[in-house]
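Section: Multi-chain targets

For targets with more than one molecule, the full set of components is provided together so that the structure can be written out for the assembly as a whole rather than chain by chain. Components appear in the order listed by the source. The example entry contains two components.
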Amino acid sequence: MIFTSYTYVVFLIAAFVIHWMLPRRAQKPFLILASYLFYASWDWRFCFLLLGLSVFNWIYARNVLAREEPGPLWPGVLVNLAPLVFFKYTAFLWANAAAAGRLFGAQWHQNLPFAILLPLGISFFTFQGVAYLVDVASGEEDFALADFLLYKALWPQLIAGPIVRPGEIRGDIERVRTIDYDDCAEGARRILIGFFKKVVLADNLAPVVDSVFISHTPNGLDAAFAVLGFGLQIYFDFSAYSDIAIGSARLFGFHFPENFDFPYRSRSPQEFWTRWHMTLSRWIRDYVFTPLVFATRGRPALSALWLLVAMAAVGLWHGAQWTFVAWGVWHGLLLLSNQTLLKRFFARAGESRLRGFAAAAVTFVLVTAGWLLFRAESLAQAADFLKAIVTVRGGARPSTLRLNGLLFVFFGFFGLMAAQTLAAMPLPRWVRNPVVWGVARPVGYALLILAVIILDQEAKKFVYFQF
Amino acid sequence: MILILLLTNAAVVHWSDVIHAPPGARRVEQGMFLTNLKKSERPVRFDWSIGDHLDEFERYIPDSRKTRLVILSGMSQMYTINEYKPGDETISECMDDALAPHGTRVFGLAAPNLSHEEALFLLLTTLRRPETKPSWFIFAVAFEKLREFDLRPQYQAYLAAHPDVVAAWRDVAVRHRREYPLATRKMLATLDAISKNNAPGQKTFEATLRAGAAEVVPLIKERKNLNGHVQTTIFNFRNDLFGITNMTKRPIIPERYDTNREFLGLMADVAREHGVGVMMYVVPFNPRAENPYIPEEYSAFKSWLSEFGRQKQIPMANLENAVPIDDWGTFFGGPDFKHFKGEGHRRTAAALLQAFGPELGGGR
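Its structure, encoded as tokens over all components, is:
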């Protein structure tokens, strides 16, 4: 059940109506049931995995970690990571072991002798489970069973985040939630914006980008526009998912943390990670980087290494391919240079508009260069694209893209830049006029709905589902 | 907001005639014959849905177990008749008239701007059943079509619904990976896109839901036509912005060009593997209209095509000058670059029979 499908709209409306009609004591069980129904719409078999991990985490947290004398944390973490490693990384590990074995004369086939289906959202609910165990071990109060099952399964965040930590949602889960006009209005607005970003922007950019990445030898212009286009596509796609997730949750009185805050406005790589997939970067900081640094606190030189390790883990979390690891390491290097070589450059971004613009432009170029590693099918393809861009292969003439594709990416880029610049400015007084605002807002929403209905490409999957 | 949406729905109902008009409808207003036919009035001898409902028109393909079958495939020139007069027939119909008495039947499978990838797809769909497997597959080559690839959504939907065609498609892509790396890579990417966007079990419910919503909400019912209008408006805006006309010289796009040349090779090889003969011809041009080709590029392409035909032993015909000036129509006050009158269809069919008649079993 894809968020931008008609099926989801019907599911959401039905769930909303039934939920708020039910007596309060039945609302939580209903949400748990609805969440499992949502997950089963992908593949019912993996519901048992989700339920099994949920029950294990709850029991382990309550009976081992929340005792007066807590037991070890690591077995619980391992049990959470084991399914992730099995389902997501077995083929990758096998292929690399086979490649290494060949160096020593072994004749292993590169592909696994059996197929492994990847449970949807496993990367997200694994991280959530680990966060729960670590937080309980650190003194956070554990949940009641029903509350925990709801925390783990609540469908808006189940497949692709945001990665919600126990403390961020405990209040909403444990309090008596009542239907609230502001929550509903904001929820509906976020869902509509999410639909627009995904259906109108991301889904229409996808074929342009894909056409270049399946090509053999793109010219420099193709490669540059494809990488730029992918940077836009993944932003619109993933932030759309987060918008719909946050909006859906609001309809039921849950307040999820934000996941994006105009990341392409960042004026340093460090700032980028406070605006892009914010819940993941906080997770990595708190559960990977900080514990590593703390464990080696007597040797500060190691923190640079831990930063690279943490970012490589971020890359590997996205997918079992060396391209993702390279993307993570690239960002690790950017963060390191942010603290060393380019520290002064980025630190002075606030001194003048020109410096701010230059810092934002450099950050954007560096981040966009990273998208090449993220999107490429192999490191060799990434190298070829990079070579095409650097050597301006083919001059100003595209080899693959048509004029329409070039224009779409061009206008998409400047549209986003204009939108994020305007979003940072206060509304002019004439717009704030109640009459103007009273007319402009509903007209704007109606236009968004029309665009979503008319320009729909029939419910394409979100990029982040694969993670 | 709700009021605006209600008004929009009312407007959609009010202007449904305009909305219903497909992009080609303006051509109908200009006196062109497209495919607005009634099956009771005329035998079906080509895909009248021009790619929209291939499933529905496959059953009209003459049974090749009982007769020699020729499939004629190409773009809109095959079925568009400029300044249509009753009695005018398309190229495939004219050929069928001439060859049927000799035991050879001709059926047209064409669609607007048919790409080479789509032509290969059409060939594979005919090969899947003995009754539709042709003796000959004739493909109309147009230089500007080497700028395009991909399967239109209707063909993708067909592919998604026919696992046997998917298997054949994948088999061709895998087996010919070495000789045709670009084309086979594109074929696998097409399959990948189709499998990603057609989750089993979900599409049916989602499609049912969409159909149900379309019954109730006119805006949803007309969304695809409205989408077409929006795309056309943006396209026209682009043309106005950059001063692009249908005669503006457009250079080839190298990788697309190479990929499409590989698709021609694949078409020939796949047909041969199945014992089907392939013939190709260069489509007629309007000598009065300036074409959008860069002369050197077009000349190089024709040389390549000729050499390709020789190497692959494909009967080849150049019909560039087969249709004289008077048999071409006009479009929006200017000479039409690609579509001719009924007489043009007769002349093209006659030229094809002249070139390929003996092989097709119909004499000259």
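The first helix of chain B runs from residue 2 to 14.
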